[in-house]
Amino acid sequence: MSYQSAGYTLVEMLVAMAVSSVVLAGTYAAYSLFAQQQQLLLGQTELSRNAMQAVDQIQTDIRHAGYKDYYDDNPISQNQPINIDQSSPADFRIVYDNYDNQCVSKRLLVRYYIKNFLQRDRLMRQVNCCNDAAIFCDLNQSTLISDEPLLDWVTQFSVKGMHPKISGNFKDQYQTLEITLSLKKAHRVEGMSKDTEKNFSFIGRAKNVSLVP
Predict the structure, then answer these.
(1) For residue range 29-77, what is the model confidence (pLDDT) as tens digits?
(2) Helix (H) or strand (E) holding 17
(3) How far is CA 109 from the centre of its chain?
(4) What dihedral do alpha carbons 104, 128, 131, 89 form, nearest 10°?
């Protein structure tokens, strides 16, 4: 009785190796593409989350614009609640009364502006306490409380005033602000640097009864 040894021929092994190489190459390419898409999605999610927090803070300040505490005898000047620097639309200021941690009412000046930091731009939120609520409050007539970055990697930030009041104590004061915001941040994806960009456009409305019709 004779036995024949079973096995693969050289040609069969070469074919099997070639097919396996094609399958592995396709699998790696699919994984690499998935990893890139996942990293880009995570980058966009991070930018969106940070932007939404900044948008919420800006809209909160705009809603308070022009608010005067009931017990404050000092009125807010006509052009004081919302003031946009016409030479630099990325710089605007809001004035309103607010309470501190000791429940003491203070007149605040809140300023938003762009500041360069390590070759990138940051959106800053500066809060000052007005030295004398009886006079026009500006940066020279107020004391700095805080000046902190609100948002990083900003490539565009502009503010446009809309719907000015046509009468009353705050005539010509904007009731609505249209804000355009763009972010761009580089992420490392598969050893390469890729930019993630997000653009936002939103409306902020003043809710103080003195500013709305």
Answers:
(1) 665 566 666 666 666 777 888 889 999 999 999 999 999 888 888 888 8
(2) helix 10-64
(3) 20
(4) -130
Q: Is the dihedral of CA 110, 80, 143, 93 positive or negative?
A: positive
Q: Nearest 10 degrees: CA dihedral of 167, 168, 173, 175? A: -90
Q: What is the pTM of this model?
A: 0.78
Strands (E), the chain: 82-84, 92-99, 105-117, 120-130, 142-151, 154-164, 174-189, 192-205
Residue 143 tokens read as 């004391």
Structure tokens at 164: 């000015």
Cα distances from 135 to residues 16, 78, 100, 102, 142, in angstroms, run: 86, 12, 21, 24, 11
Q: 51: Cβ–Cβ under 8 A, 6 or more apart, which residues?
A: 151, 181, 183, 198, 200
